[in-house]
Amino acid sequence: MKIACVGGGPAGLYFAISMKLRDPSHEIEVFERNAQGVTFGWGVVFSDLTVDNITRNDPASAAIITKEFAHWDDIDVHFKGETITSGGHGFIGIGRKRLLEILQERALELGVLLHFNSECDPADPKWRDYDLVIASDGINSRFRDANPQAFGIDEDVRANKFVWLGTPKVFEAFTFAFEETEHGWIWAHAYRFASDCSTFIVECSEDTWRSFGFDRMSQDESIAACEKLFAKYLDGHRLESNASHLVGSAAWLNFKRIKCERWSSGNVILLGDAAHTAHFSIGSGTKLALEDAIKLADVLNRPGLSLEAAMDEYVAERNLEVLKLQNSARNSTEWFETLERYTHFEPLQFAYSLLTRSQRISHENLRLRDREWLEGVERWFWKRATAGKSNKTAPPMFAPFKLREMEVMNRVTVSPMAMYSAVDGVPNDFHFVHYGERALGGAGLIFTEMTCVSPEGRISPGCTGMWNADHVAAWKRIVDFVHTQSKAKICLQLGHSGAKGSTRLGWEGNDVPLDDGNWPVMAASDVAWSPVNQVPRPMTRADMDMVRDQFVAAVKMGIECGFDMVELHAAHGYLLAGFITPLQNHRTDEYGGSLENRLRYPLEVFAAMRSAWPSDKPMSVRISATDWAGDNGITPDEAVLIGEAFAREGADLIDVSAGQSWAGQQPVYGRMFQTPFSDRIRNEGKLATMAVGNIYEPDHANSILAAGRADLVALARPHLVDPFWTLRAAAQLDYRDVAVPPQYLNGMSQLARNLKREAEMAAALRV
Ligand SMILES: Cc1cc2nc3c(=O)[nH]c(=O)nc-3n(C[C@H](O)[C@H](O)[C@H](O)COP(=O)(O)OP(=O)(O)OC[C@H]3O[C@@H](n4cnc5c(N)ncnc54)[C@H](O)[C@@H]3O)c2cc1C
Ligand SMILES: Cc1cc2nc3c(=O)[nH]c(=O)nc-3n(C[C@H](O)[C@H](O)[C@H](O)COP(=O)(O)O)c2cc1C
Fold first, then answer.
1. Could you say which DSSP state residue 414 is in?
2. d(Cα 214, Cα 158) in Å, to the nearest integer?
3. DSSP 529
4. Is residue 106 within 8 Å of residue 98, measured between CB atoms?
5. Helix (H) or strand (E) holding 228
6. Strand order in 268-270's β-sheet?
7. Can you tell me the distance from the alpha carbon of 590 to that of 580, in angstroms, rounded to the nearest whole number?
8. Which residues touch 648 (CB under 8 Å, ≥6 apart)?
9. How far is the CA of 561 from the centre of ligand 2 (A)?
10. Distance (Å, rounded) from C-alpha 107 to C-alpha 89?
11. Percent of the chain beyond pLDDT 90?
């Protein structure tokens, strides 16, 4: 095949090498706009896995690259005058210029033609003479942008400013240096890539950048200002840029996240940064470029594979890898963009939050890297959780937590889950066993299902209620069991179904109206939940008074039952959530319109409940932190305001859920997918929060808590099939100080022994 590679970066060169290795008869030319030896950037970081891949693909170039690698293990985080050092991170890096030299030499040796100083124009007819034109022309690819429809480009220009500099100062550890200035925070990511040189990337928000006047400075002035700012880390060494002699390069940039729906059109194939980018803070762009090159060369040389089939396989495999990385990269990018959310943290927690920002590194992962450091974090966490009384080295999820006078023994909660099994709202033996068993299971706090304040406020005929003496008696029996037979606390979740009422039992059809016996429903406005649901009657002020009083009456019954805590359900599209979201609330009075107006009634209900509930006992509110409807619904920004508004009325904890507020929601699922909302409310609003949503491993819980993304973690579905989730987690983590019912002690120690043995065998097999 006759092939042109446009762009002589890692992607283009490595693809040329990989093609020649598979079939020397290919005629391959690489066109690079810059002169030989001139390139942007300084060092690039690799992972062990990338080294394995390039070694298998071309042992000759890999041998030279790996011989020249700079290795380092530690990460130093400089923050508020402290340096937090953690080890075991195992990085390898090489200078970009040196990497390109090695690849150029190897390409020449294999017979590739290299053209430097060759600016390529996609409109040039000469590209038709090639069987394939590989657009390896980087993030600002002209070949991709010449044909945006064909490639389905999705570009996201990120908020922060950064400049990629170098310095002769040799950093022995991967260094993050955060400096607070009168213009805001500014920080550097620095690492050594040769025996005499380090990369030094400076980053800050656009506001800080403007306030510094970087927008008005020449490149030399910018560099001088950065030298001054980071002087204490540079030990008198200079900062340097190599962007000035480059075609089409600027000093300060905004990172652009690129992804493409299609990676080929006609004879043009996208490769490397032209097809996709991953933020520099997770250091994987070069790895992706090299691995793309290997895969593309593989499929193009596989006998019998048509070009179309080859492209399908190339894109399917590489796109999956890219999406995974872009997901982590997005978390990492956002962490730096919202840095000020975390700057009130103590240095140790700040460093932990930084290290776990992409969610690729977890608590247990950090333990494997540097046990001593992680144990230091755990001791710190316990000390804070116990106001200095304990400096236990133990997983954060087992640390106690206090809300008003209620102390929960650990941070795990059983999330509210409707069981649809009551008759006339009365909990029965099923509920007694269900809640009792979960209380024995070791979680610190058990939530009841949404318990409705009136018969009409039920979702289904099977919902539990709290409106008469039978309810009080039945709930009291459950609460008494929890208090006498376990150390768990129990919280009553109170709610009203609003527009989502009068529907079937959960397993007979969620949100589907009853076949017969439907009761009329009311809500903020006459907006039906879906075309098959009833159109609710918009609430009058008299209705609002009545429902508020029903909530208060239910709270008083909750006191009689002995509940430790009460939660107001103002999420998931039910009555109060229906007031908060503009998707359901179309009112034109003082309860509709602005967020302040939409919150007015839910806050009134909360305040009335709070006054009826004892002041030494805590209250929480469950909210949907997003409607998953973009700007048309509640946004995470507004969720902070909502949390703050309830806190002003006396909410001690914001239970941060999301969605279910309109039938057309577009949620983005994944592990711990709602935790970022809790993180935001907790750290921007400075409020106690509970995270929920696909948290299922003890490692998830510990990472969330230690990173300060929530104060409690709630698990719903995992507790349906495993009431003993917390005890199992304790056995797995070899933590003994949990509340095991004495009757079950034997089983617990047996489980712990077995899990330990299995872990040891798995570790031995890995070695
Ligand atoms: C600040 C920063 C730090 C980074 N750190 C890391 C890291 O630590 N690890 C890592 O793996 N990656 C890192 N990256 C990403 C990495 O640089 C890229 O992902 C990688 O270079 C992609 O390789 P590529 O060959 O696709 O593109 P590039 O390396 O951008 O190469 C494209 C080449 O095409 C040339 N070109 C462009 N247009 C034309 C044209 N019209 N005609 C001729 N030639 C053209 C360019 O001059 C360039 O040489 C970082 C990026 C940035 C911005
Ligand atoms: C069967 C079931 C019933 C639920 N009922 C309620 C409820 O009554 N009140 C509530 O606030 N959330 C309810 N939820 C939502 C859960 O509390 C939780 O927010 C959601 O399931 C996500 O957590 P998970 O991924 O751990 O399951 C219910 C969830 C399930 C699976």
1. E
2. 18
3. S
4. no
5. helix 219-229
6. 113-115, 27-31, 2-6, 132-135, 268-270, 264-265
7. 12
8. none
9. 23
10. 32
11. 89
Q: For a ligand 2 pocket test, name from 415, 450, 497, 692 the mutation site with the most ligand atoms within 8 angstroms of its C-beta.
A: 415
The atom of ligand 2 lying closest to the CA of 459 is 8
Contact call for residues 45 and 93 (beta carbons, < 8 A): yes
Where does ligand 2 bind, in terms of residues with CB under 6 Å?
415-418, 449-450, 493, 506, 569, 571, 622, 657, 692-695, 715-718
Q: Which of 417, 458, 697, 725 has most ligand 2 atoms within 8 Å of its beta carbon, as the pocket-test mutant? A: 417
Q: How far apart are CA 149 and CA 621, in angstroms?
A: 46
Q: Given 130, 314, 352, 574, which residue is catalytic?
A: 574
pLDDT exceeds 90 at position 765: no
User: Average pLDDT over the chain, rounded to whole?
Assistant: 95
The tokens of 101 are what?
């030299």
Query: Would you say the C-alpha torsion 598, 604, 606, 607 has a positive or negative sign?
Result: positive
Sheet with 75-79: strands ordered across = 82-86, 75-79, 174-181, 184-194, 197-204, 153-167, 252-260
Query: Which among 489, 433, 110, 96 has a CA at the least distance from the CA of 280?
Result: 96
Query: What six digits make up the tokens of 107?
Result: 């390409």
Return the CA Rg of the chain. 30
Contacts of 301 by beta carbon, 8 Å cutoff, 6+ apart: 19, 22, 23
CA atoms within 13 Å, Cβ hemisphere of 744: 17
The answer to whether residue 39 scores a pLDDT higher than 80 is no
Atom of ligand 2 nearest to the CA of 692: 23
- Residues with C-beta less than 6 Å from any ligand 1 atom: 6-12, 31-34, 41, 44-45, 118-120, 136-139, 142, 164, 201, 272-273, 280, 283-287, 289
Question: With the C-alpha atoms ordered 143, 144, 145, 149, is the resulting torsion angle positive or negative?
Answer: positive
The Cα 633–Cα 548 span in angstroms is 25
Band of residue 244 on the pLDDT scale cut at 50, 70, 90: low
Q: How many helices (H) and strands (E) does the chain have?
A: 25, 29
Assess whether 574 carries a catalytic annotation. yes
Three-state DSSP at 739 gives coil
| Model confidence pLDDT, tens digit, residues 348-376 | 999 999 999 998 899 999 999 999 999 99
Residue in the structure block whose two tokens are 């000390």: 383
Q: Whole-angstrom Cα distance, residue 712 to residue 701?
A: 8
Spatial CB neighbours of 224, under 8 Å, sequence gap ≥ 6:
none
Q: 21 in the Ramachandran plot: left (φ > 0), alpha (ψ -120 to 50) or beta?
A: alpha
Residue 42 has pLDDT above 90, yes or no: no
Q: Which tokens sit at 584?
A: 């359901």
Residue 244: helix, strand or coil by DSSP?
coil
- How many angstroms does the Cα of residue 33 sit away from the middle of ligand 1? 13
pLDDT band for position 250 (cuts 50, 70, 90): low
The Cβ of residue 231 has, within 10 Å, a number of other Cβ atoms equal to: 11
The C-alpha atoms of residue 390 and residue 179 are separated, in whole angstroms, by: 32
Question: Which distant-in-sequence residues (6+ apart) come within 8 Å of 567 by Cβ?
Answer: 416, 447, 491, 492, 493, 494, 619, 620, 621, 622, 655
Q: What pLDDT is attached to residue 585?
A: 98
Burial 709-745 (b: 16+ CB within 10 A, else e): bbbbbbbbebbeebbbbbbbbbbbbebeebbbbeeee
**Could you tell me if 571 and 624 are in contact, meaning their C-beta atoms sit under 8 angstroms apart?**
yes
| Contact call for residues 192 and 300 (beta carbons, < 8 A) | no
Q: Which two tokens stand for residue 195?
A: 């025996």
- Calculated CA dihedral for residues 418, 421, 422, 425, nearest 10 degrees: 30
pLDDT at residue 469 tops 60 = yes
Which pairing describes strands 43-46 and 82-86: parallel, antiparallel, or unpaired? unpaired
Q: Which helix (H) or strand (E) holds 12?
A: helix 10-22
And the tokens for 12? 């283009």
Helix (H), strand (E), coil (C) string for 331-385? HHHHHHHCHHHCCCCCHHHHHHHHHCCCCCCCHHHHHHHCHHHHHHHHHHHHHHH
